[in-house]
Amino acid sequence: MARNKIWLSAPHMGGSEQEYIQEAFDTNWITSMGSNLIFFEQRLENYLGSGHVAALNSGTAAIHLGLILLGVEVGDVVLCQSMTFAASANPILYLGATPVFIDSEIETWNLCPIALEEAIIEIIAKGKKPKVIIAVHLYGIPYKIDAVRSIADKYEIPILEDSAEALGSSYKGQQCGTFGDVAVFSFNGSKIITTSGGGAIVTRSLALKNKAVFLATQAKDNAPHYQHSEIGYNYRMSNICAGIGRGQMEVLEQRIALRREMHDFYVDLFANIEEVKVFSVPNSDYFANYWLTAILIAPDVVKGIDREVLRLAFEKADIESRPLWKPMHLQPIFCDYPYYGENIAESLFRDGLCLPSGSNLTNEDRSRIQAVVFELFGQ
Ligand SMILES: *Cc1c(COP(=O)(O)O)cnc(C)c1O
After folding, report:
1. CATH node for 253-377
2. How many whole angstroms from 379 Cα to the centroid of ligand 1?
3. Residue ranges of the domains in the chain?
């Protein structure tokens, strides 16, 4: 009998999404206005506790508009965490700005404050002040919020908080998505909740939210004809997709609890396997949604096991796992841009693996995962 494939992170519907889509059909609010959009944005704002939310059609679009709202123009320097998904960095190039990549530190795998400040000092010395810092909460673990914020404030550089993977994570009781001068979320199919495809931008003022919506809907001036004084984009979320998001918000807390259970499962699974460390928050200031559970495998020359051996063993058993994000400064498209750091991101990429972490994994799935691990490491 064919086994089902176990995915890294699959969509997990809650049940009421279709009702809200039906409501959009019934009222014929099918495109970029309607009650699903209003409710979805409101639910997100209530959940975050502060900030104004505009729903967009992707997280990438949110980063693009975020950089525009923070004033990034052709030739500007934008500092960006190297260890991230390419969507954090691509919008820098859309704007003709120059990315400068910053290493990770080992506790949260996010922006290294030391490398960040070193880069800022050196770039300022060359006569160009960086325009924005893009900080990411990788795999749902918050970056070193206090350290990064104090550097940003010291040099007066705004933070674009890439919270795409971190809806539901928090730091000292404050939600991720409320720390940046602008923040973004993604609701693509693999994220903790999904709108099939979508994203959101979080701003600190209603005026800035309205500006984001204006830019996202083709920057139409107030006139009876179509008149434009600024470059517009077609980035608004549809009322259909927002219906999915509205339904997903009702189960967000459950999804977070289930992802965190998967993380607990892996902590137990690897408890007696010395070569493997499960990536976890450094202390109780940090609360992670554990969107993906990731591990580091110390390459074992005696047993011949490394992250690729484990990945292939999973693959043979129809279980998807994936190396960590390959750092941006090692990517063919970005390797000619400056990089500051000590190659921490590079070693994380060499030894790190993301494991199936979906909120809809079953006990049977967990048994299959456990069997592969026990067979390889011997238990
Ligand atoms: C998913 C993701 C994005 C992009 O979001 P999309 O909705 O897929 O465009 C950006 N940054 C990070 C860190 C992500 O994981």
Report:
1. 3.90.1150.10
2. 37
3. 17-250, 253-377
Provide the phi-psi class of 311: left if phi over 0, else alpha when psi is between -120 and 50, else beta: alpha
Which tokens go with 290? 């554990």
Q: What does residue 182 show for φ and ψ, rounded to 5 degrees?
A: -140, 145
Give which of 295, 290, 262, 257 is closest to 279, Cα–Cα: 295
Cβ neighbours of 206 (radius 10 Å):
9
Element (DSSP H or E) covering residue 328: none
Ligand 1, from 56, 58, 60, 194: best to mutate by most atoms within 8 Å of Cβ? 60
Please list the residues that pair with 21 across neighbouring strands.
Answer: none
The token duo for 155 is 């040099």
The DSSP symbol for 86 reads G
As a whole number of angstroms, the distance between CA 255 and CA 14 comes to 9
Q: What is the pLDDT of residues 194-252, one digit of tens each?
A: 999 999 999 999 999 999 999 999 999 999 999 999 999 999 999 999 999 999 999 99
Mutate to test the pocket of ligand 1, among 56, 165, 292 (most ligand atoms within 8 A of CB): 165
Compute, in angstroms, the gap from residue 322 CA to the centroid of ligand 1. 16
pTM to 2 decimals?
Answer: 0.97
Cβ of 195 below 6 Å from ligand 1: no
Q: Find the DSSP H helices in 144-238.
A: 145-154, 206-216
- What CATH class has 17-250? alpha beta
* Residue that has been written with the tokens 């998807």 in this structure: 320
Q: Which two tokens stand for residue 14?
A: 């809650």
Atom 14 of ligand 1: nearest residue by CA position: 164
Pocket test for ligand 1, best of 8, 81, 85 (most atoms within 8 A of CB): 85
Give the residue-averaged pLDDT of 86-96.
98
Separation of alpha carbons 353 and 49, rounded Å:
33
